[in-house]
Specification:
The longest helix has 21 residues. Helices cover 25% and strands 19% of the residues. α7 runs parallel beside α9. β2, α5 and β3 form a beta-alpha-beta unit. Strands 1-2-3-4-5-6-7-8 form an eight-stranded parallel beta barrel. The chain has a five-stranded antiparallel β-sheet with strand order 9-10-11-16-13, covered by helices on one side. The chain has a three-stranded antiparallel β-sheet with strand order 12-15-14, with no helix packed on it. The protein has two domains: 310 residues, Glycosidases (TIM Barrel, Alpha-Beta Barrel), CATH 3.20.20; 96 residues, Sandwich (Immunoglobulin-like), CATH 2.60.40.1180. The N terminus is likely disordered. The protein is globular and about 75 Å long. The protein is built from twelve helices and 16 strands. The chain is an alpha/beta fold. The structure holds ligand FHN. The site of ligand FHN has 6 residues, from loops.
Length: 434
């Protein structure tokens, strides 16, 4: 899939249009079923832990099945861990024998995964953790053993070069694990230059370089295209125009497989997160931790099926849209997205046969509920718009989207253009006297 970016302004347009990705944390830690950080958090003996590589054979792993479930859910890109903090590589890394090709599995999982993504029409994302618990010098620091420290930096650069050279076009490089080494010590700018030489169109996340506060001059921080911010578990959001993504677990806490996880997010929680992030102009990337033998847990399959039902019906309000929730802080029914002169109201709190919106200054030419075929009446009374003829009960138990065709780009009345509880409270004084 060649990138269609013909100019800097198009660079990564596919990423913000995509709106929905799928994160996958999978590795030898999946055998223990206590999350991806079990080695570190439970202080296991590394020389014992690494023997899991001789048990990890993933007999049920089928990358095409993973890609099919993701594509059916409406996912547009996937990001799979190539190496997490524990150091085990799911790819044929010539600089390591702690790999899925050299040990019991005898397979290059990343090769199978990248091929399956492309066959399913999905963009290919690779996660790579810079830090690596198999290198004690990472904790010692450079002063303790400069030569070994340099070998770790070289290993890191070489491993990333292997991923950028041997697996075709990579669309996303999702770095993690800078701690406890600094971007300067990782020589992140050199890694960046190498990546851009091998994968010029790749989107790189915000964990390879220092934050703008620490290093405003790095390639990542000067606003050039090809980079995106990652909010994790909570919505931080980014400056308008900057690509960003919120990632979160579908279960309760850990990203890797958990044996007995009773607290999976409901489909409603996932769809609310999707709308919340899209309404702010961001992508959503929920995470799955497959079982050691290579299967998605049943709960995750049900969640992905629910996402698929929603995106098949309401994809028009998601893919290729911009966030609009901030346009009307007074919207009490749910998040808003927009595309040109169409405003999408993601109605999460159905108001019955009439829906009231306040703050929209446009003329509403027509309204329709996505995926439904009943007529919606539109009435304006001053600043208030009433959508009538709706069913008493919501067409969808989780979220129904209403598309408003407007007389132009959505615009708000001046009194609600600022953020609610904004800096100029006087704009509400006349209303308060009414
Ligand atoms: O420590 C990792 C964690 O295990 C997981 O990979 C998440 C995913 O974004 N990143 C780090 C925590 O921020």
């Amino acid at each position: 899939m060649k990138d269609s970016s013909s100019s800097p302004k198009d660079f990564g347009a596919w990423f913000t249009d995509a709106r929905l990705g799928l994160f996958i944390h999978w590795g030898i830690y999946s055998l223990l079923g206590r999350g991806e950080q079990v080695l570190f958090r439970e202080h296991l003996i590394p020389s014992e832990y690494c023997k899991l590589a001789d048990e990890f054979t993933a007999p049920a792993f089928d990358a095409h099945e993973w890609a099919r479930m993701a594509a059916d859910a409406g996912v547009r890109y996937m990001v799979l861990t190539t190496k997490h903090h524990d150091g085990y590589c799911l790819f044929d890394n010539p600089d390591s024998d702690y790999t899925s090709t050299n040990r019991a599995a005898g397979r290059d999982f990343i090769a199978e995964y990248t091929e399956a993504c492309r066959a399913a029409g999905l963009r290919v994302g690779l996660y790579y953790s810079l830090n690596d618990f198999t290198w004690p010098v990472m904790f010692d620091g450079e002063k303790r053993d400069p030569a070994e420290f340099e070998r770790l930096i070289h290993y890191t650069h070489s491993s990333i070069e292997t991923l950028c050279s041997n697996y075709g076009q990579i669309d996303i490089l999702w770095f993690d694990g800078m701690w406890p080494i600094t971007a300067e010590e990782w020589r992140s700018d050199e890694i960046d230059a190498m990546i851009r030489r091998l994968q010029p169109n790749v989107m790189i996340n915000d964990r390879l370089h220092d934050t703008p506060a620490k290093n405003p001059d790095s390639p990542f921080n000067d606003g050039r295209p090809g980079y995106f911010d990652t909010s994790e578990r909570r919505v931080v959001g980014s400056p308008i125009g900057r690509a960003w993504e919120g990632c979160d677990v579908m279960q309760h806490r850990w990203w890797g497989y958990i044996n007995h996880e009773p607290h999976c997010k409901s489909p409603a929680e996932l769809i609310f997160l999707l709308g919340d992030l899209a309404g702010r102009g961001g992508n959503f990337m929920p995470n799955v931790g497959p079982t050691a033998d290579g299967r998605f847990p049943d709960d995750v399959k049900h969640q992905l099926e629910a996402l698929g039902r929603f995106t098949r019906k309401n994809g028009e309000a998601l893919y290729g849209t911009q966030g609009a929730t901030g346009l009307f802080e007074c919207s009490t029914v749910g998040p808003l997205t927009r595309r040109g002169s169409t405003l999408y109201v993601w109605v999460q709190w159905w108001q019955g046969d009439t829906l009231h919106l306040c703050g929209l200054a446009n003329e509403v030419l027509s309204a329709r509920v996505l995926g439904e075929d009943f007529d919606v009446q539109v009435e304006r009374r001053g600043e208030h718009i009433y959508l009538g003829g709706l069913p008493t009960n919501p067409p969808d138990p989780i979220c129904s989207v209403i598309a408003l065709e407007l007389d132009g780009e959505p615009r708000a009345y001046s009194w609600c253009e600022q953020k609610l509880w904004g800096s100029d409270p006087t704009v509400y004084a006349d209303w308060a006297r009414s």
